[in-house]
Amino acid sequence: MLNEKTIQLVQSTAPVLKEHSTAIGKRFYELLFLKAPELYNVFNQTNQKRGLQQEALGYAVYAAGEHITNLEAIKPVVERIAQKHRAIGIKPEQYPIVGETLLQAVKDVLGQAATDEIIDAWGEAYGYIADAFINLEKKLYEETKTQPGGWEGFKKFIVDKKIAESDDVTSFYLRPNDGEAIATYKAGQYLTLKAEIPGQEYTHIRHYSLSEAPGKDYYRISVKREDEIKESPEGIVSNYLHKQVQIGDTLLFSAPAGDFVLEEDDKPVVFISGGIGITPLLSMLNTIVETQSKREVIFVHSTRNHQSHTFKDHVKQIADKHQNVHSYVCYTTPTEDDKNKNHYDKEGYVDFDFLKRIIPSKEAQYYFCGSLQFMETISKALKRLGIADENIHFEAFSPVSILRED
């Protein structure tokens, strides 16, 4: 347990680390990859290029320091990070070099303000926080390995089918290479791909939401093809999957993970998705329908137009067949064909006024997923509508928004 002096030093200096969080994160990764270049195989290089990983690290350090005496207060943050660590294979022996590098980054950025006393206090605090993560991740590794159909590390899966869902989204149906049963999962969870791409020096790790209800003898992920940018990891993996991976090829995946899951509840549920953010919510919708649940469902999806509208027909068919499911579509840039055929319910983005008009009750459970900007807009709208925090659930395709709770 940390002594009182250490606690006071950490909590009093946490705001300073927050102020310099981006610079500390940037310096940390510069040092880390010099010391351990093999970790390029673990960290998302696209997020590195965009500075998102650096900002996420800085925020995590600040949050942990601020709540050092009560990590339970940031339990959602801790659990999300632990789930990601288990999925990509972070091991206890990697924590010391991370701690050492983090303290050096703090010293480099803060200079003389980072006294030996402060650095020693944060060193103790890091050890305490690392132990919390290691213990939680040990439990997750054990549960994952011993569950029916579970496995350790990355396992080979055969691409059984490739199906185009829209102009830029393709679904991949995956079956285990060994023919054995596969682990089940909770609606909303994701698979983690280790992509070994020809011509690439390092492997690329990506998380892809499972887009089908659990209980099948296959997994399905639905991947949006991102634009490729020269000399940047942006789009490398999605283009590899779309253009190079063929039916019969094998890919490496770790077992399902994630804390963004459909809760068992009788309350009405509102799903709000933007673009490819539809994937985990579709898994949830399919689950409700397949389990014969009578829960009232509002499904809101926002995208550019019908050309980018993934699973358009599937959701419409569900809504037409089930009286408890109601679907709404928002197109930001509808085509003339969309306008003539009334393909959508609202032109423009999902906003406060639209949600106020369609939501069934403040007591509903709200699940939303999409880009960072989309997430921030929906979060603000729901809070403005007076939705209680315990009824708001989100997944985000960004390490920063994955961490933030505010």
Automatic annotation (TrEMBL):
NADP(+) binds at G275, I276, G277, I278, T279, P280. Heme b binds at H85. One of its GO terms (molecular function) is nitric oxide dioxygenase NAD(P)H activity. Its EC number is 1.14.12.17. Binds 1 FAD per subunit. Consists of two distinct domains; an N-terminal heme-containing oxygen-binding domain and a C-terminal reductase domain with binding sites for FAD and NAD(P)H. This is Flavohemoprotein.
